Amino acid sequence: MLVILLKKRGFIVKKLGSILIALFSIMLLAACGDDSATNKEKNSNMDMNMDMPATLTVDVQMPSDPKVNEEVSFLAVVKQEEELVEDADEVMFEIRLKGSDQKEMIESELVKGEGYEATYTFTKAGEYEIIPHTTARNQHVMPTLEITVSE
């Protein structure tokens, strides 16, 4: 009889231990979970407190049919919303023949009321990538444009 009682007691202890572990795991998971309503309210308050500046846009004006050994002009019109940006930290044109690892970086100059201008003379015919690296108002944008230079 004592043996049966001890065996039952061991069974009960094992069951009780398993139940306690399961309850502890559930409580731990519940504590780690998020309260969606509270988090949404916190995120909403963060959004209201952060004034994100409008994104810079760069529109490049360039010749439609440039020729080899002819000087061409590139004009980067930098805007933030509808405002012309004339206080850029830097506007440099990267010029690279497609398929080549070589590139040239050309500095630009501000033309008041218009944008940032740079001139360049292509020495080879082919397809080129033009990338106006523009840094202004704590932002950096660099759209990629393509141009074909003919003989």
UniProtKB/TrEMBL annotation:
Keywords: Signal. Residues 1-30 form the signal peptide. Residues 55-133 form the YtkA-like domain. PROSITE patterns: PROKAR_LIPOPROTEIN. The keyword Phosphoprotein does not apply. This is YtkA-like domain-containing protein. Pfam families: YtkA (PF13115). The keyword Signal applies. It comes from Paenisporosarcina cavernae. It comes from the Bacteria.
